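Hello Y.,

Per our agreement to keep a running log of every chain we model this quarter, I'm adding this entry. I've kept the format consistent with earlier entries: sequence first, then predicted structure.
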Amino acid sequence: MLGKYLVVFLISMVPLVELRGAVPYSQVVGLPLVPSYITAVIGNMLPVPVIYLFARKVLEWGADKRFIGPFFTWCLEKGKKGGEKLKAKAGRGLFVALMLFVGIPLPGTGAWTGTLAASVLDMDFKTSVAAVMLGVLLAGIIMGLGSTGIIAAFRVFT
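Predicted structure for the entry above:
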């Protein structure tokens, strides 16, 4: 069982998949929801400070490199585009906008992209991490409710 929790933890750290894939996986393999949720939240939040502090610098450094440049440039553009959208829509409510951006489980709106956007927008570190944390908690609740409901409905029809 510890191996399954490790997989949940690792899945939640993967960009684009994150907690949105880890929580449903945990339900498919039959793990209890609350410990899986906690494991996924920790795994999803672990890279956030590193992303905030270093990702932008590394991406800017690598943007002009031969092999990694196109991918790094794409990541920077995605972060800038996400940040500009947040800022345009949110105005003074940037904290809530970032929280909702991370919390609503749509592709490309997780902790990785939200943290990169906060870094690009030069948001305060503590404010960024708090908004991303609340967003991850919200996304986990949504995915947990959705996963248990979908799996329960699937079991009814089989």
